[in-house]
Amino acid sequence: MGPMYRVLILGGGFGGLLAAQRLKRAPAQVTLIDRRNFHLFQPLLYQVATGSLSPGEIAAPLRSVLSKQKNCEVLLGEAADIDPDAKRVTLADGGVFEYDALVVATGSQTSYYGNDSWRPNAPSLKTVEEATAIRHKLLYAFERAERAEREDEARKWLTFVIVGAGATGMELAGALAEIANQTLKHDFRRINPSNARIILMEGGPRVLTAFPEALSLKAEKLVTRLGVEVKKDVMATSVDENGVTYKHGDTTERLEAKTVLWAGGVTTNAFGKTLAARTKAETDRSGRIKVTPQLTVPNYPDIFVVGDLATLNDEKGKPLPGVAQVAMQGGTFVAKAIRARIEGKTFEKAFHYFNKGDMAVIGRAAAIANIFGVQVSGLLAWLAWLFIHLIYIVEFQSRVVVFVQWGFEYLTFSRGARLITGVDVEDSVSKRPPTSNS
Fold this sequence. Notes:
Blueprint: E1 5-10, H1 14-22, E2 28-34, E3 38-40, H2 45-49, E4 59-61, H3 62-65, E5 72-76, E6 79-83, E7 88-91, E8 96-98, E9 101-104, E10 108-110, H4 128-147, H5 151-157, E11 159-163, H6 167-183, E12 197-201, H7 213-225, E13 228-231, E14 234-240, E15 243-248, E16 251-256, E17 259-262, E18 266-268, H8 270-279, E19 289-290, E20 296-297, E21 300-305, E22 310-311, H9 324-342, E23 358-363, E24 366-371, E25 374-378, H10 379-392, H11 396-412, H12 425-430
Parallel strand pairs: 1-2, 1-9, 2-5, 9-21, 11-12, 11-17, 12-13, 19-22
Antiparallel strand pairs: 3-4, 6-7, 7-8, 10-18, 14-15, 15-16, 20-21, 23-24, 24-25
Helix pairs in contact: 1-9, 4-5
């Protein structure tokens, strides 16, 4: 009996975690490395950003998820470099790991389209830290408006701009409108939170471009009904701490807003770029690696790429979307391929993505869904969204907590996690000039 087959998995997101779980009884030594010690249920991150859920309710420690899987070890670390010919991965802290099969599922990061200087003033929504930073920013804006001495100052604090009207932008806009119109309705004495102006900016001709046109029109109606202003065909040209400058056709306009949130596109992370360079793999515009139908890097059959870092066209020649279900099905497929190799079988099957449908939630009892080509909107779509998201949360305990929270919130409009936390809270409060009545 030779040495154990070594499977190295980078990233504990949807793709990486599923690949590890599906190798449960395989005669292999599986090592899962992630720079975080938890698996994050990203589709609900906007609920942390808007105070509905706490981070712990949508994150599960990777060690506890895989604790019963004896052939799998979980390590904390970040991949920094790879030697694909020597089959060796080096971590940022200098650790070196050799592999027989490598699964790269390191995901993506937010793209500011070359304007990274906008990041401090327009946080995006990819990590737990960003979600709590956005929560801080949103709630702090209402607090500052309450203390504002002048009408125009209060108005700037009560203006919120969300750049990008994909699923994340729509979800944020809907949740923010709900906070302003319902949750905070009676909480303030000087301001009326429902006077908040929420503007959703989209570069394309319609919101939710991934959905059929009829559904994207419905979604726009639903979000507009909540009081959100939708601006289409506009491009942000500059973002600073006081607002956004944007172009609409040939005219340039300015929006004074103290809170700007970024829900734009995604791009590859640093390790994804390194992997592409070391393997001389072809990439698309946003840096995703063009994989073979077996989800491997061309010329390197022992390196699999799943999730946001990979790009592959479906039967119609369209690239697969960067959504959780693509990553999950990819993780399952790769585990099958690796099992076949360990058993010495040839595995020639091509990856086939089975699209169960797309959905986006816009607000209370309002969502749109395209399930197996059937278009649903409103309450029915919202119930389907609730059910599916509860099923896919990794830990049973979290499912129960989230379900109870949602039920309570639905009945009362309350949001239990409305905490202004973060490193710079004291700084941001103490450095403000005192108001006249202090």
